[in-house]
Amino acid sequence: MTTPAARFEPRKPGLLMPLGVRIGAISWMPKLLPQIVWTDKLLQRVTRGRLTILDIAGLPNMMLTTTGRKSGVKRSNPLLCVPDGDRILIAGSYFGGPKEPLWVKNLEANPEVTVRFRNETIDAVARQLVDVERAAAWPTMVGTWPNFARYEQRTHRQIKVFELRPTREQGAPGASPRHRAVPGSEETSQVS
Question: Considering Cα of 36, then 39, then 42, then 46, what sign does the dihedral take?
Answer without folding.
Answer: negative
